[in-house]
User: What shape does this take?
Amino acid sequence: MRYSKRQSWFAIFVGAATAVILLVNVAGAQGPVTLQDQLNAQYKVAKMAGAGAVVVEAGTLLTVQKAGVQAMFFNAIPKCPAKFDADTLRPATGFFCSSPMALHNYFQMGNKVYPLKIEVNPDKGRITFRVVSCDQCNGVNPPTGMKGEVQFEFPKGYLEKASAGDVADKIGQVFAISDDDPQQNQADGQQESNAFPANGPVANQQSTPQQPPAEPQTVQLGMTTDQVQATLGKPDKAFNLGAKQIYVYKDVKVTFMNNKVSDVQ
Assistant: This one.
């Protein structure tokens, strides 16, 4: 079959148009690189195991630059985030985070941590940066997997057009990327008596080594009444409402549904 000259040109035009459409679709499918993508590439997050107590894959090593980030055991229910705005780090607030039942540990300046989770929320003008302790670097053994969280606040609309470079300076005021050797940090950390003193962010000045802090009295969702009593002791008051039970202690109220913890206040 022979084609006329007009038919040949038409076929070439259709082929070129189809190629352009395919290229546009491929580019559109990939989409622009978001701030979330950039931060995920800049800060490699650590991978955990052993119910969150052990780092099995290290992330980007960071050095804590400011005291005031509350250090919670990995499985603790509250997150207790600190907030950073206008070059000021404000410790976590709220009943549980500031109650006497919470073990008030804090990451200290110079402690080594890994990124654990990064969340960018342009609508709220906020970047949430969660970290976990590098226990090997800090000389903590057995590992505790202490976690902490900071919410970096930005003006409304800023994060919609910002790049990782635009926010890196602010994040770096609290968590600076470290070029230290983790193995050397481990050796140095063995000389420290306690990386996370229970008295707050002030470094331990005592010359004699101290015992590691006892685990906090932690109540988690799903615990039974027996488990709660083993942790907190017998309640001051107890209310049995069928499937619902309430234990009242001096500083906390624990609610059970079908013998499982459903709420802590």
In short: The first helix runs from residue 5 to 30. The chain has two domains: 35-189, 225-264. The first strand starts at residue 47 and ends at 49.
